[in-house]
Write a structure and sequence with these properties.
Elements (H helix, E strand, L loop, with lengths): L12 E6 L3 E8 L13 E7 L1 H11 L4 E4 L1 E3 L2 H12 L8 E3 L6 E7 L5 E6 L19 E6 L4 H13 L3 E4 L8 H4 L5 E4 L3 H6 L4 H12 L3 E5 L5 E5 L2 E5 L14 H14 L4 H16 L11 H12 L1
Parallel strand pairs: 1-4, 1-9, 2-7, 5-6, 9-10, 10-11, 11-12
Antiparallel strand pairs: 2-3, 7-8, 12-13, 13-14
Length: 314
């Protein structure tokens, strides 16, 4: 099944992202600790992350031209996160460092047996965008605009500019935020977490929730990531499901796997692949990501992705 969308030409970037960045403090433990106990950690690492920032890095490492707009704190974590994007050659002309603000952070406890994690996070309110602060001109600079729908009223303004210029709007959404209903009709490709369709529609059956989500908001394609089981999308009255891949060498950390999936999926769209192949690419990038510790660690290059797929399908 082909994408029911037409990619624009003659844009400065293949993909642009407006949304979150974060710095993660990853703590690996032998097993998840019980309440009111002590446990010695196996490993600790500081790593850059964040939904949209990770997706832009993923696409850049796969060889596409990307740009990121978002806010960083002026603390050491913020400067660290900002520098990691520059080091990966993601354009940050529209990114901001907010003086006096603390960067978004997360403390992530990872069970060494499975790579599954528990996240405790915080975001300084000074990093949020008011609608009038949204970088509207940024929205038209890419063939695809990718959002995570934090600060929905600001996202609406950027998405409107994108749609008016022919840019395709993609979104990775986990929760229902204030102002979200006004944003959803502006999204062409909406692939959220497993829980998101139920949270929006109130329908517990996953496929029925996707059907309702598409009917209610008119997105060209809706879907969900379902962890190790892969992902499923719905469009043109058809479901397409693609199973996940095992992480090479075993899963060390699932942090950022969903963000990495979106990088691989959009890479398929931007390189002319059909939806089924794009799902496989998304799952492959997510699997490679899970093989290492850290949200942006082990995001593959184009050649590494090709080698992984050759190994899987040989």
């Amino acid at each position: 099944m082909h994408f029911p969308l037409t990619l624009p030409a003659n844009k400065p970037f293949d993909a642009i992202g407006f949304g979150l960045n974060a710095v993660d403090h990853l703590i690996v433990v032998p097993e998840y600790p019980a309440f009111d106990t002590k446990i010695r950690l196996l490993e600790h690492k500081q790593s850059a992350g964040g939904q949209t920032a990770t997706t832009m890095v993923s696409l850049r490492r796969l060889g596409l031209k990307t740009a990121y707009a978002g806010r960083f704190g002026s603390d050491p974590e913020g400067l660290f996160g900002f520098q990691t994007l520059k080091d990966d050659d993601v354009n940050v002309d529209f990114a901001e460092i907010v003086e006096g603000a603390r960067n978004q952070i997360a403390f992530i406890t990872i069970d060494a047996r499975s790579g599954e994690r528990t996240i405790v996070w915080d975001r300084d309110d000074r990093l949020a965008y008011k609608p009038e602060e949204a970088p509207v001109e940024f929205g038209s600079l890419g063939r695809v605009l990718h959002l995570d729908a934090h600060d929905p009223p600001a996202c609406v303004r950027v998405a409107q500019a994108a749609r008016e210029s022919g840019t395709i709007v993609s979104a990775d959404i986990d929760n229902v935020y204030e102002g979200l209903p006004e944003l959803l009709p502006l999204i062409d490709i909406l692939i959220g977490s497993k829980e998101f369709p139920r949270r929006v529609t109130g329908i517990t059956d996953e496929r029925a929730a996707l059907v309702e989500l598409k009917a209610r908001y008119g997105c060209a394609l809706v879907g969900m990531t379902i962890g190790a089981a892969g992902a499923v999308v719905y469009g043109d009255r058809t479901f397409i499901e693609s199973p996940g891949f095992e992480a090479p060498g075993g899963c060390r950390d699932t942090t950022g796997a969903g963000d990495a999936f979106h990088g691989g999926f959009l890479y398929g769209l931007l390189t002319g692949q059909d939806i089924g192949t794009s799902l496989k690419l998304g799952n492959a990038v997510a699997a490679i990501k899970c093989s290492a510790l850290g949200a942006r660690t082990a995001l593959p290059t184009n050649s590494e992705l090709d080698q992984f797929l050759l190994t899987v399908f040989s």
